[in-house]
Write a structure and sequence with these properties.
The chain is mainly alpha-helical. It contains 3 helices and no strands. The chain is 87% helix and 0% strand. The two termini are 40 Å apart.
């Protein structure tokens, strides 16, 4: 079932709060940096370890991308809700006159 605009907006606000105020962005950056450091520090013959780091970095990127997508979708939902509200107020105002 698709989320309503209000649900999208509310979810985006929660994700923004977790991301900025609760340190999720910092945690993601630290995890990603840790994997990158491990990749760089790995021995050239440690193919499996290097591949695991590469895969982990990709997963962290996908998680970060999903979070940013939810936040971006919520911003669009908020703008659409504001547009609809403005249209309703304008339409209501025109009927009063």
């Amino acid at each position: 079932m698709a989320e309503s605009l209000e649900q999208q907006r509310a979810k985006a606000e929660r994700f923004m709060m977790w991301s900025k105020e609760d340190g999720l962005s910092d945690a993601i950056a630290a995890i990603k940096q840790g994997y990158m450091n491990s990749l760089v520090a790995s021995h050239p013959t440690d193919t499996q370890g290097r591949e695991n780091c590469y895969i982990a970095i990709g997963i962290v990127d996908k998680i970060e991308s999903h979070i940013n997508g939810v936040i971006g979708g919520g911003k669009l939902a908020k703008a659409e809700l504001e547009r609809v509200e403005h249209e309703q107020l304008t339409h209501k105002h025109l009927h009063v006159i």
